[in-house]
Amino acid sequence: MATQTEPEIILYDLSCIPNVCFSPAVWRIRLMLNYKKIPYKTVFIEFPDIEPKLKELRLLSPPTSAEQASLLTKPPSDIHPPSGSNKYTVPAIHHLPTNTKMMDSTPIAQFLESTYPTPPVPLTSDLGSRIELQSRTTLAPAFRASITPRELPLLTPRAQSYFRRTREADLPAGYKLEDLLKEEEQAWEAVDEGMKGVGELIRTNRAEGPFVLGKGPSATDFFVVGNMEAARVIEESVFKRLVGMPGFGEVYEACRPWLERTSY
């Protein structure tokens, strides 16, 4: 476990007007960094600046030595997303001691766990995979209706324009993001039983401790709590829905010590 105060990691996060983390994916990595006490600093990037900034960093996800070396000879305009990916995204990190750069929460978590193995964070488990899969499929429609349109007020006008243009492209013709709010209550009613089922899975090892696997946190705890904390920042009423469900409130409280650092 790192003890020095100089940062070893630069964490690239999504910028918003309150200047706090509101991305579920970034929260998964921020929680891991906080839990492991890895020295890091945050650089916030607005939505329209993510791709040019990460191209400027000559960043890949995940990097190989050959890929990293090939980038050194290319101008940023000739750098394209890695194979299997269609976009640049945050979280991204720059590990200063090794000059390693990567994006996407899964390879970043793998890198952090291999580089900073103490305290350990189990990255995969059968139970965790079930929770994450069911959470994604169950919660996505409700988050789309409740969270997506409410992100707009957190963004600068420039980022709002980008966010609206890219997100409304996936909606039916003529739909505005605000129209999603009309579906909110219906969406939550539709996922209620499924979310209770996820909550019961979260409580599987409750007798052994407050976390998904019992005594200590895993990547699945950070996945669940990252979604919850993002919801809390964006819309408190959505967070209250989640925290009131079995299992969700307990794991959130267990991870609260690693939620305190939100903006630096």
Number of helices: 10
How can the largest sheet be summarized? 4 strands, mixed
Query: Helix share of residues?
Result: 40-55%
- In percent, how much strand structure appears in the residues? 5-15%
| First-to-last CA distance | 20 Å
Order of helices and strands: EHEHHEEHHHHHHH
Mean pLDDT: 90
State the secondary-structure class.
alpha+beta
Residue stretches low in confidence (pLDDT < 50, at least 5 long) are: 61-65, 76-86
- The neighbouring-strand order within the major sheet is 2-1-3-4
Q: Give me the count of strands.
A: 4
Q: Write down the Rg.
A: 19 Å
Shape: globular
Describe this structure in words.
The protein has helices at 24-36, 50-56, 65-71, 105-115, 126-146, 157-168, 184-202, 219-234, 236-243, 248-255, and strands spanning 9-14, 40-45, 92-95, 100-103. Strands 2-1-3-4 form a four-stranded mixed beta sheet, sandwiched between helices. It has ten helices and four strands; from the N terminus they run βαβααββααααααα. It is α+β, with helices and mostly antiparallel strands. Helices cover 46% and strands 8% of the residues. The protein is globular, with a radius of gyration of 19 Å. Strand 3 and strand 4 (100-103) form a beta hairpin.
Set out the fold topology:
Layout: E1 9-14, H1 24-36, E2 40-45, H2 50-56, H3 65-71, E3 92-95, E4 100-103, H4 105-115, H5 126-146, H6 157-168, H7 184-202, H8 219-234, H9 236-243, H10 248-255
Parallel strand pairs: 1-2
Antiparallel strand pairs: 1-3, 3-4
Helix pairs in contact: 1-4, 1-8, 5-7, 5-8, 8-9, 8-10
